[in-house]
Amino acid sequence: MPIHEYVCEKCEKKFEALIRGDEKALCPDCGSGTVKRLLSACGFVSKGNGGESVSASAGSACSGCSSSSCANCGV
Ligand SMILES: [Zn+2]
Known about the structure:
Layout lengths: L2 E6 L5 E5 L16 E3 L38
Antiparallel strand pairs: 1-2, 1-3
Zinc ion binds next to loops.
C-alpha cells in the first residue's frame, strides 16, 4: 500500500495518508482537502539504470515521480 506524505496548505500540518487510486487526502487537523503531496523517496530514485523506458507508464505513477519502480507510489 502506498503511503504518501502530505502537507496541508491551510494549517501547514504534515501528515501521512494511505491513498488508493484517485482518492483525496484530507487534513486530519482542519479537514481541508487543499493538501499538497510531498516528495519523499520518490524524487530521489535514480533514472540512470540502463536506459529503461518510463514514458509508457509515467501517467499512472505518482505525480512526483517519473520512475517505473517507485516504492512510494506502489508502481
Ligand atoms: Zn489543515
